[in-house]
Design a protein that fits this description.
The complex is a heterodimer of chains A (307) and B (324).
Chain A lengths: L1 H28 L13 H11 L5 H13 L14 H36 L4 H15 L2 H15 L13 H30 L3 H8 L4 H39 L4 H10 L3 H29 L7
Helix pairs in contact in A: 1-11, 4-5, 4-7, 4-9, 5-7, 6-7, 6-9, 7-9, 8-9, 9-10, 9-11, 10-11
Chain B lengths: L37 H11 L1 H18 L1 H4 L31 H37 L1 H16 L2 H11 L5 H10 L3 H14 L3 H8 L4 H38 L3 E4 L5 E4 L2 H10 L6 H28 L7
Antiparallel strand pairs in B: 1-2
Helix pairs in contact in B: 1-12, 2-4, 2-12, 4-5, 4-7, 4-8, 4-10, 4-11, 4-12, 5-8, 8-10, 10-11, 10-12, 11-12
Classes of the chains: A mainly alpha (307), B mainly alpha (324).
Amino acid sequence: MFRYTLKRLLSAVPLVFIVLTLSFFLVRLAPGSPFQRDAELPAEVKASLQETYGFDKPIAEQYVRYLGAAVRGDFGHSFMYKDKSVASIIAEALPVSAKIGVLAMIFATIAGVAVGLSAAVRQNSFLDHFIMTAIMAGKSIPPMVLAPLFVGLFALTLHWLPVAGWEDGAARNLVGPVICLGLYDVAAIARLSRASLLEVVRNRYITTARAKGLSEWHVIMGHALRETLCPLVTYLGPALSSILIGTVVVEQVFNIPGLGRYLVAAATNRDYTLTLGITTVACLLVIAFNVVSDLALAVLDPRIRLT
Amino acid sequence: MELEFPTVPLTSAGTAQPHQPPHSPHPSQPAAPPPRSATMEAVSRLLENRVAAVSLVFLVAMVIACFGAPLFLTHTWDAVDFSFEARPPSREHWFGVDEMGRDLLARVLYGGRVSLSVGLITTLASSILGVVYGATAGYIGGTFDALMMRFVDLMYSLPGYFLILLIMVFFNVESIQVLFLVLALFQWLGMARMVRAQVLSLREREFIIAVRSCGASHTRIVLRHLIPNCLGVVSVYATMTVPGVMLQEAFLSFIGISFQARGSDGVMKPVASWGSLVSEGARVFDTSPWLLFFPALFFSATLLAINFVGDGLRDALDPNMKVR
């Protein structure tokens, strides 16, 4: 296990390197300078900006400097929020996004598995068909459609929940974002766990368990569940990535001060340093999610460690 | 010379299956209906699936409505009036009017053009790339194959969504053609993997050996015999790709990346897609909900229909793959 963990961690290093390199050259190749504004900057201001960001140095030196700075987590200053560094914005916003993200993941897993299993145990019943159709609908309603409709129904019409806001993560402010964020993955997880359980119950040991006279509940919960959940672990990485993408939308709609809202603000205002900083962090997170999901799978399935 | 192998239909249901699908006619049985091609079999199975058939009709109608919009619409998507007030649906404007005085029905249909063409063109481009790449890797095999697939693995682990966003922001991309290209560049990987796996198993089969013994060139084997045999899975996979691509474009629109097109007065102006209409609608949802409702309805209904067709296609082409 130790060897596998080491190997998997090391294999992520080139990816991190590639992401940093790609982002550096994308920014440098882009037409125009980030300092290009409608009004021409005074020469002194331009010179001082050039010096701060090192744009007057040869490109190789800039590249090495950038890599060094990125490793230290230093992405320079935001253009929009002039008094803040990109790193401090990220440090402030990341825990907020993480809170919604983790809660959404937990919601998606529990709800998804529950829905998927209840469909599978009554295969081809009305409930099963209903759930399968609902899953399809869930896959077709992206957060950007769902979130505003959710606000319209539960906040503007029924007045059960606040329209938007954060208030340091008060529970009533969390309900909407977490549900809107998690619903897509509820559908995906339900589909996977349904298919997985239907596969698992064909095993002989399930027949044995039934032959012993166990109740269906004990057969599923005591014997089939563990194996059913294994394929779900492979979906962990993609699920976390899709939640990361979803936070961008959901934070915008619910006005939550997380990474996603800053990303939208930065991209629309062409705040180059902040956009670069947040996308780099997001990329690194996606790579980390994939490593974590691979390691989790290796814990559950020892055969994987040997490859 | 073309050899006929009646038991191995060249446009078969894609995957190499030793067993005949349950519905397929067996030529040796006297009572069986006249043999039809595997493609015809699949099409009839698809149409027997009621949900998939209805979805397919819906999609065709949607495409006709969006691309034929100028033929029957009385309003253009960019005609502005200066009342500066959003108005709810009326007899004059079926879907209402946005705060710039633009007719929403026209905007939704023209937006559908953008969203649908992003979905279709990107998928087409990425599928061609993926099929060619995957078939080449699978057919050549060996170290070359291993190298080619290492590259795919590498690209696959890169976080595409955010790299695309970075490209769009920093290059200030405003032309939609560039978007097709950028999206396709990150989309072909899954297709390449799948086609390679197919080709690896197909190239060892008897009909390929037979074709080779007839002296067919490598290009001919790949283009005429291997790729056509993959088309079943390719079409399923491609259909499943379309919604993802459309969502990706919607995500980019939501972030505020807009594209330019020539308006009816010849001036370049930002063009709407379903994604951008939804995000605009979301902003004014409390005062004028219809601006969100109609684009959201069109967008989600189309995604749902594509998903249903994809599922139906998968079941029709490969009965063994059907989720039990």
